[in-house]
Amino acid sequence: MQDSYRQLKEHWSIILVIVLSPLLLYAAIQILPTHDDWAGTTKPDFSAFFTKEHFLFYGYHWRPFDTWIGYIVGRNPQLLYPTFNHVLVIVGHVICSLLVYRLLKTLGFNSTSCNIATFFFFIAPATMATVLAVDSQNQTYALVWGIIAFLYYINNGRWKYFIWPFLIFMATLSKENGLMWALICPILAFGFHFIDKRTLRKDLLIGISIMVVYALAILLLPKDIIIHPEYVPEDLKTVKNIVKFFFSTFITVDYIYLLHQPSRNLLLALITLALSMPFFYYVFVKKFRLMTDRKMICTFIALIIAVGPHIATVFSMMHTYAGLALLSIIIANSIHHYEQLKFLFISFVFFVLSAIFIDTHLWYESWMSGLVGKNMSIEAIQKTGEPVNSVLVIIIEDDYPKLSSFCVIPNEAFGWGMAAQYETNYQWPKIIQDTTIVRSSDAMEKAQRMASEMLITDTIDCVWIVNHDKIDVVK
After folding, report:
1. How far lies 341's CA from each of 2, 141, 260, 370, 441, in Å?
2. Each residue of 371-393: pLDDT tens digit?
């Protein structure tokens, strides 16, 4: 009995992760695809498996695992999509949480530090944009492979300089930011005294070589590159991304209540902030002197490197996930140096209460956004009446506020018409084109006139005019 109690006390975070995982999975499965879920390669794909797009650089990504998922769910979309995607994400998040615990133990932190930091990683609102998304398994498994790469790297196992690069490429082919672990591994290992300066210099050169090999592969292999405007670095955008990174990583508050104008409730936002701040005070402010030692300097550098590609291009709440394992190290380090844990643990309980409230709200808004897209699809299908082969979707520009993947603009939840294809199990329409017109007092008249002109030319069978969350059908 005493041994069981000791094991429970020693590994309580692992037990909570395993116990809560089915609940998290059940909640996630209720969320329907929106926005990027309809634009990425994890949506149902009906092409043959052995295609260039499934193995080589495609569009502006080289993510073969994403395209394979799209192929799998394409075999039976109504059964597998998005359920299969959600299962992969939640399983990946659970694996990440277990790996974070193993990582913290390997780095020498005590049980209390490992448990609190691990459960922080599992439940933190900063993870929810990844955990609750349909297409985010790339972000999740990039971190899974990255942590495994580090754990193998510091063990100095046989074939280290073959297996370590292999694991880095597995992370990178999940998502491009996985490549950063080629630099993170030696920097973090040096910070925690697993390697000396000479080995650090040598392995950083090897890490850079791994990056060069990946870059050469992109340049030399057959590819179709599309440079998306959002991915072009800009100074002002980078500054904004740094601000987003700081707040989404280090400040726990209900950002929907704070930033999303239609949902704004400053009182509830302040309550969530007030509940979470004592924990961050104990971790970051009260132990600030710890942030200047070699371990924490290297960890913070690794954290910046992990999220660096997103800061330089596109940073949203989802991209915080890439650095949260490293943030957990910083948290564990602070807790490790506390002798009296009573008030720290109470502050963590308050943080957990805040996190549960925020996580539930984020889930609810994600669920509601998905339902908006589904209801619009049903409306479009019912008003169309009978199957048509081709549809033009005319979207009247919507200035309705959005927030990340939680509060999505209706036409993006509608997937520019692709959500309606899903509702018919991809039987119709076979062809969807879309265009956007500027919102104005006579925008609907312009849309109807455009629809009539397109129908006269016989190039399409039907027009769906999207005005916020309403669908008008012109046949």
Report:
1. 22, 34, 37, 42, 62
2. 999 999 999 999 999 999 999 99
